[in-house]
Design goal:
The protein is of the alpha+beta class. The protein contains 9 helices and 27 strands. A 6-stranded mixed β-sheet has the order 1-2-6-3-7-25. Helix 1 runs antiparallel to helix 2 and helix 5 (285-295) packs across helix 6 (304-313). The radius of gyration is 24 Å and the shape is elongated. The two termini are 27 Å apart.
Length: 481
């Protein structure tokens, strides 16, 4: 690998040949590195958190795996007490051009995987496993992209900025890692996060999380009601135990009934999981089960208000029935998802609310409407988190550079876009989300989406993404950041 004049110029045909040769040479090892980090069940476990592993042993182990890969690739690694880590290629300036991916993943509980989610499967050109797309596969790509520039530097090519691959470990459950990084290190001159779709995401809806809580009414006719795994996912499974014999309950689509002793029955609803920011095409299992409970009067009068509140909240994915529907020209429609229902130890029912909201409504307005709905149904409501909508100008030099690279490498000409999901970009002064997925690409029926069962991504899409990221970093190095 060499560039004869030792000048960084990613616009030349020679550059492209060097990048392509590098990727072909290292690709099998890239795949093995993805396999090694996918094998780690890096789900947050705060009950097992200790100093150095603030989000639990799984995320800690995954970050360690990434750091070991970074050091093997010749990068300068640093760990900030387990909260966040990074790997550097020092440049002529201390100003930082950064990427940021995360090593943590969402749980797989309640999902029907066709294979072990933590053993990556290669099938018909696809990689399947928890995190291959979100976000362990892209994380490994950023480390190998940084390694490319480390090799260029060894050959005498000048790097105007320090290149940093930031490794997060808390993206799925709060992004506290990004807050820690920003507090300790400040914002990079520019950052892109490979945790979305191509081409470039320049804006993100507001993210509102809240919680409804009933009075202590559980344990009577409706003994318990539990479903979902995380607030930011549409649940595929929900269960309830009722004080009614199983043989007295009618069949229903999507609902199974089985006896569980003492004249009780266990009800299980199966839906279609998905990310809370993209509920189209999903089927909320909590909604299915709640409807069955109401239709068959599997509650006493003290429990009715909570179930009726559930029915209103879950009636649609856009907040129309509950009263917080909103649209704007930048983001389109708000979405509203109830992802987790639980029965507490003191006999209360709780239900999470995840709203990806647009600029025509505020978090305060959402609180007012949902608090009023709670009061009407003998419940309380509390706001847990509220991140306002975020966007940057889509015609900035940085975005223009990323868009140009994407078009040249793929031949596609889709416009930059906004999303309902939340990425690391919103935590920094100058940042965007950039690939690696192509949402219009069809998937086989045995390949699922991020946060769902059988999460998968095309291997050649990841390979193209690595080329795009290397080219993009090279272009960004030439800008006045």
């Amino acid at each position: 690998m060499s560039l004869d004049d030792r000048v960084l110029d990613p616009t030349t045909p020679e550059w492209r040949g060097v990048v392509d040769a590098y990727i072909d040479k290292v690709w099998l090892q890239v795949i093995e590195d993805i396999r090694s980090i996918v094998a780690i069940e890096s789900v947050e476990d705060l009950k097992a958190a200790v100093p150095g592993a603030p989000y639990g042993p799984g995320p800690r182990k995954a970050v360690d795996c990434a750091l070991e890969i970074a050091e093997r690739l010749g990068l300068k690694a640093h760990d900030d007490h387990g909260y966040v880590a990074w790997a550097d290629v020092p440049g002529e300036s201390t100003r930082i051009l950064a990427t940021m991916c995360h090593a943590d993943v969402v749980p797989v509980g309640g999902q029907d995987w066709e294979s072990d989610p933590f053993e990556m499967v290669e099938r018909e050109g696809w990689l399947v496993g928890r995190g291959v797309a979100d976000d362990k596969g892209p994380l490994i790509l950023t480390l190998w992209a940084a390694a490319f520039f480390a090799k260029l530097k060894e050959e005498g090519v000048r790097l105007p900025y320090t290149l940093r691959a930031i490794i997060g470990s808390n993206e799925e459950t709060g992004m506290r890692d990004a807050d820690v990084y920003e507090a300790h290190e400040g914002s990079p001159a520019f950052l892109f996060t490979p945790d979305a779709d191509f081409p470039v995401c320049y804006g993100e809806k507001g993210i509102f999380h809240g919680l409804f809580t009933s009075a202590p009414v559980a344990g009577a006719k409706l003994v318990s009601f539990d479903g979902g795994t995380v607030a930011n996912a549409v649940p595929s499974k929900a269960e309830a135990v009722v004080a009614v014999a199983a043989e007295l309950l009618p069949p229903a689509d999507g609902i199974t009934v089985e006896p569980c002793g003492e004249g009780r029955a266990r009800l299980c609803a199966r839906g279609i999981a998905g990310h809370a920011s993209r509920p189209e095409g999903t089927l909320n299992a909590i909604k299915l089960l709640n409807a069955y409970l109401l239709e068959n009067a599997l509650f006493d009068e003290a429990q009715r208000p909570f179930l009726e509140l559930q029915a209103t909240l879950l009636a649609d994915d856009y907040g129309e029935q509950i009263g917080i529907a909103a649209t704007d020209e930048l983001f389109g429609r708000s979405t509203v998802v109830g992802g987790v229902v639980r029965t507490t130890e003191d006999g209360r029912f709780t239900q999470t609310v995840d709203s990806r909201y647009v600029t025509s409504i505020t978090g305060e307005e959402i609180v007012d409407v949902l608090s009023a709905a709670a009061a009407e149904h003998a419940c309380t409501f509390e706001r847990l988190a509220d991140n306002v909508p975020f966007y940057v100008k889509p015609d900035s030099p940085e975005i223009n550079a990323l868009m140009a690279v994407y078009r040249e490498r793929t031949g596609r000409d889709e416009p930059a876009y906004t999303i309902g999901g939340g990425t690391y970009a919103r935590h920094f002064e100058k940042a965007v989300a950039f690939g690696p997925e192509e949402p219009e690409d069809p998937k086989p029926e045995w390949v699922g989406d991020v946060h769902g069962a059988n999460e998968g991504i095309r291997e050649d899409l990841l390979k193209t993404a690595l080329a795009v990221y290397i080219d993009a970093i090279g272009r960004l190095m030439l800008l006045d950041l």
